[in-house]
Design a protein that fits this description.
The chain has helices spanning 3-12, 17-24, 51-60, 76-88, 102-106, 120-132, 147-160, 174-184, 219-223, 249-253, 255-266, 363-377, 387-406, 422-428; strands spanning 42-47, 66-72, 97-99, 113-116, 136-139, 164-166, 191-200, 273-279, 293-299, 304-311, 322-328, 331-336, 339-344, 354-358, 410-413, 418-419. It is an alpha/beta fold and 442 residues long. It is 33% helix and 20% strand. A 10-stranded mixed β-sheet has the order 14-13-12-11-7-10-9-8-15-16. A 6-stranded parallel β-sheet has the order 3-2-1-4-5-6, with helices on both faces. Strand 11 and strand 12 form a beta hairpin.
């Protein structure tokens, strides 16, 4: 019996999600520290060990039966740091395989699933290759760095029938689901406008001189399909997200979380029109390429969704630095990671004031319970954020960035999955791949 099938058989005796979730909080449970036979393990390989890549690994290790069996990163100092961290938690690391090339990790037949926590410009290639290799995938958001990449990722999942969860963990939090149910109940009345925003305390980064590649860093592999540039710390760990070669700024960093719930609440898919205005207003001389201020307006048939982002200012709408607001004729529902509430419209005849409903759970950990449950059951329809959903909102965020970069009011043709402006499609629909890389034909 294969490793995966042995794990599924053993896990099936546990009775499912409730026990699985409870076990995560019970350190006496035999699986908590993965004290299990190798044949009963669900083996995870982690590709990209910084930021959310490692946060996901930490959450995964709390799920009964899950074992981190392989680590992959292009920075040897990061790998060494993670191994030291695991040892400090009395986790045996002698059987953890170490890789600098993710393709070698994917050849490991003992790996059941992979975490993709690399910079955005690598997500599509790594997810598609993982599906080809027969692995299930937990891919960080935004799932793709272009609309064409998002489409290819969906096609790969559908072809290879793998379990692919997008790392939009708010989909697993109770209060977000409750808020969407209230929005859809009709109690707010007709909703004409939805606002989503992120006012980030991050400030624009200042220019730094190019420098030698740090020892132990495979910078050529880090660049991958991006164009060759000299090493610069600003374009590397974390701050890569402020450059178009690798990511899409605050829009794709936070927008995928918040615009996801704007779409969910309105049961919407794609807009008809997209307009944007913004720029490097906080510091025109900042080294970043993505705008520090951006307003995007998405037009649908009977309502609009407005996105706002600002760096260096935290006093956002309704006194919140991030959130989503559904503005109805009877009241406005305000939702963020802290909870949700309803503010009644002053002229409303319906009394619908609802005080703050706070967040009560850990979304990342619950997202991982869901991923492992579906990996066991193969009931893909039960995923909380399948790649199709991740691709939908990532594409929406790309539309906003494309409207800003092109300076055009764009119209989206949903039937053709393209803009009506051919020149915009040619320039922005696909990411430009360099250095011999290309998206596989699926």
């Amino acid at each position: 019996m294969s490793t995966r099938r042995k794990f599924l058989h053993h896990a099936g005796l546990i009775t499912g999600g409730t026990v699985l979730a409870n076990a995560m909080n019970n350190k006496a449970f035999a699986y908590f520290n993965n004290n299990i036979m190798p044949s009963d393990r669900f083996n995870i390989g982690v590709i990209g060990l910084n930021g959310m890549g490692w946060a996901n690994a930490s959450a995964a290790m709390k799920v009964p039966g899950v074992v981190i069996s392989a680590l992959c990163d292009i920075d040897q100092s990061v790998i060494a740091g993670r191994i030291a961290e695991l040892k400090s938690k009395n986790i045996d690391t002698k059987n953890i395989a170490i890789y600098s090339d993710y393709r070698k990790l994917l050849e490991n037949k003992d790996i059941d699933a992979v975490i993709i926590g690399t910079p955005d410009h690598w997500h599509a290639l790594q997810m598609i290759h993982a599906c080809e290799a027969g692995k299930d995938v937990y891919v960080e958001k935004p799932v793709g760095n272009s609309i064409a990449e998002c489409s290819a990722m969906v096609k790969a999942q559908e072809k290879y029938k793998r379990v692919v969860q997008a790392g939009q963990w708010q989909r697993s939090q109770q209060h977000f689901g409750d808020a969407v149910n209230f929005v859809r109940s009709g109690k707010l009345g007709a909703i004409r406008n939805v606002k989503a925003w992120c006012y980030s305390q991050s400030t624009p980064i200042q220019p730094k001189a190019n420098a030698p590649v740090p020892e132990g860093v495979d910078y050529t592999t880090w660049l991958g399909p991006a164009q060759i540039r000299p090493y610069n710390r600003n374009r590397f760990h974390y701050s890569f997200r402020w450059y178009w070669d690798y990511a899409g700024g605050l829009m794709t960093d936070w927008g995928v979380h918040l615009l996801d719930y704007a779409l969910l609440g309105m049961n919407a898919t794609t807009p008809n029109t997209i307009t944007a205005i913004g720029g490097k207003y906080a510091d025109p001389n900042a080294d970043s390429e993505t705008p520090d201020m951006l307003n995007v307006l998405y037009g649908f048939d009977t309502f609009s969704i407005a996105w706002e982002q600002t760096m260096g200012i935290t006093n956002g709408n309704y006194g919140r630095d991030h959130g989503v607001a559904f503005q109805g004729n009877n009241g406005t529902l305000i939702l963020n990671r802290s909870g949700w509430e309803v503010i009644e419209e002053s002229r409303s005849k319906d009394k619908i004031i609802i005080p703050l409903n706070p967040s009560i759970d850990n979304g990342v950990e619950k997202h991982w319970v869901n991923f492992i449950e579906v990996a066991k059951s193969r009931q893909l329809e039960k995923l909380h954020c399948a790649i199709q959903e991740g691709a939908k909102v990532a594409s929406l965020c790309q539309m906003g960035n494309i409207a800003y970069r092109s300076g055009q009011k764009l119209q989206w043709d949903a039937s053709k999955q393209r803009f009506t402006d051919a020149a915009v499609n040619d320039q922005y629909l696909s990411a430009v791949y360099h250095n011999g890389y290309s998206i596989p034909k699926i």
